[in-house]
Design goal:
This protein is an alpha+beta fold and about 130 residues long. It contains 3 helices and 8 strands; from the N terminus they run E-H-E-E-H-E-E-E-E-H-E. It folds into 2 domains: about 1-75, ACT domain (Alpha-Beta Plaits, 2-Layer Sandwich); about 80-130, Alpha-Beta Plaits, CATH 3.30.70. It binds iron/sulfur cluster (2 copies).
């Protein structure tokens, strides 16, 4: 089983070796997609975690017991289709192919499962069609 998650840490937990424990104690694979961690400040990790279903469940309980907020990645990315003019300015920017264009119809679409929250499309989009909520 595989999950893409946004983990938000209180400043008290920012320096704890949380990913180490997920790997060692819960036999999970943790792939860090992006990170914003500063000592004595709230931190955020975007991760892909994979492993057995029961290990994932126990690992998430461990995080929540520590006060870490665990949210599915897709809930933090909003693509506003009404605002999108399909200008394609974001397409070369999005290396993970979360934003793609159908070359026949030139219609742009967004797949939140591929988004790694790099934020690069925010500046590229002239119409504020994408929002990332942290
Ligand atoms: S934040 Fe934007 S550019 Fe980055 S992966 Fe997601 S959709 Fe693509
Ligand atoms: S840059 Fe914005 S308006 Fe243009 S295709 Fe991408 S999301 Fe749509």
């Amino acid at each position: 089983m595989k999950k893409r998650l946004v983990l938000t840490f209180l400043k008290e937990t920012v320096e704890k070796p949380i990913t180490y424990h997920l790997v060692k104690d819960y036999d999970l694979m943790v792939n860090i997609l992006s990170a914003k961690i500063e000592p004595n400040e709230e931190g955020r990790l975007v991760v892909e975690i994979s492993g057995k279903k029961e290990n994932l469940s126990q690992g998430m309980d461990y995080l929540r017991d520590l006060g870490v907020s665990v949210q599915p990645l897709a809930s933090d990315v909003r693509w506003n289709e009404e605002r999108c003019t399909h200008c394609t300015a974001c397409i070369p920017i999005c290396s993970s192919q979360a934003l793609v264009v159908d070359r026949k119809t030139m219609i742009v679409s967004f797949n939140p499962d591929f988004c790694i929250l790099c934020g690069l499309c925010l500046r590229a989009c002239p119409y504020q069609a994408i929002e990332i909520m942290f």
